[in-house]
């Protein structure tokens, strides 16, 4: 996973790299989940904000880790939104991904900067 640099907007390719998902999966999820609606720039390309990336990570968690169906994940997201807890849950699943990415990059940097023995 690439490090998540704080930017205002991310391209679909950057979001794919950050989340480990392919662009066609992201486009499909857009059609299935009304909470995923990236804006488009002047050129017509999708641009995602951090809030949408957090939602994508939450959807990924529900589908891949919790093993919800798409319909089940929609119901779960609806419950979270009605309860007002979607913001907290979104951040809960985004932060480990961000921290894991930072850790991986720090380990790689340490390996590059460590002098070989001898």
Please write out the topology.
Blueprint: E1 10-11, H1 12-19, H2 23-32, E2 39-40, E3 46-48, H3 50-65, H4 70-83, H5 86-113
Name the descriptors.
3-stranded antiparallel beta sheet, 3 strands, 118 residues, single chain, 64% helix, globular, mainly alpha
Order of strands in the sheet with the most strands?
1-3-2
Kindly report the oligomeric state of this protein. single chain
Shape: globular
Report mean pLDDT, rounded to a whole number: 83
Structural class: mainly alpha
Helix content, binned percent = 55-70%
Distance between the termini: 33 Å
Q: Give the biggest sheet.
A: 3 strands, antiparallel
Measured by DSSP, the beta-strand proportion falls in 5-15%
- What is the string of SSEs from the N terminus onward? EHHEEHHH
Q: Total number of β-strand segments?
A: 3
Gyration radius over CA: 16 Å
Query: Low-confidence stretches at least 5 residues in length (pLDDT < 50)?
Result: none
Number of helices: 5
What does this structure look like?
This protein is mainly α. Helix content is 64%, strand content 6%. It has helices at 12-19, 23-32, 50-65, 70-83, 86-113, and strands at residues 10-11, 39-40, 46-48. The protein has a 3-stranded antiparallel sheet with strand order 1-3-2. A hairpin with a 5-residue loop joins strand 2 and strand 3. The protein is globular. The mean pLDDT is 83.
């Amino acid at each position: 996973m690439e490090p998540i640099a704080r930017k205002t907007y991310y391209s679909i390719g950057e979001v794919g790299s950050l989340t480990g998902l392919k662009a066609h999966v992201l486009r499909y999820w857009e059609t299935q989940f009304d909470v995923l609606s990236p804006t488009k720039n002047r050129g017509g390309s999708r641009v995602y904000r951090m809030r949408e990336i957090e939602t994508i990570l939450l959807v990924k968690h529900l589908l891949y880790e919790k093993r919800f169906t798409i319909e089940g994940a929609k119901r779960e997201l609806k419950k979270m939104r009605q309860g007002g807890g979607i913001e907290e849950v979104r951040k809960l699943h985004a932060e480990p991904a961000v921290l894991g990415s930072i850790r991986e990059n720090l380990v790689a940097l340490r390996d590059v900067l460590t002098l070989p023995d001898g």
